[in-house]
Design a protein that fits this description.
There is one protein chain. By secondary structure, this protein is α+β, with helices and mostly antiparallel strands. The protein contains five helices and five strands, in the order ααβββββααα. The chain has one domain (4-135). Helix content is 37%, strand content 24%.
């Protein structure tokens, strides 16, 4: 188990590229005791949620496309893109140079726990997906 401050700091560390490389700002941090944590980054058109269910040990990264500046329903597949689906959608657009640049971007990070390794892997996948996000078909 991880406490809320440690989770929030880890997300800010591994996903800092959202602010530095893309147009996202930290918009919300939610903690429900030691059970559920969620960090959201937002730009004009999207919200990225990085949530963790502590008791279930379940990490989830979702890209929501805003509908009239509002979050869509969680189960609306037209506007809700889970990280795995994003990976599948952009994999054909990735070049060896994209992968090498992504690896260089994260080379200085040293995850210490299983969860930090999961956060790093998710951050790496998300960054690759966002590089080619504009090539995805509109919902």
């Amino acid at each position: 188990m991880i406490d809320a401050p440690a989770y929030l700091q880890a997300v800010k560390t591994y996903f800092s590229f959202l602010a530095t490389d893309f147009t996202y700002t930290l918009s919300q941090e939610v903690t429900r005791g030691n059970v559920f944590y969620d960090v959201q980054y937002r730009n004009l058109n999207h919200v990225i949620s990085i949530s963790y269910e502590n008791l279930e040990d379940y990490l989830q990264v979702i890209v929501f496309e805003l509908v009239n500046q509002q979050l869509p329903k969680y189960d609306d597949k037209r506007y809700t893109l889970h990280l795995r689906a994003l990976n599948q959608a952009v994999i054909g657009h990735l070049s060896p140079a994209d992968r090498a640049a992504n690896k260089r971007h994260f080379q200085g990070l040293q995850p210490q726990t299983v969860l930090e390794r999961q956060l790093l892997k998710s951050a790496q996948e998300l960054r690759l997906g966002l590089v080619h996000f504009d090539k995805l078909p509109a919902p």
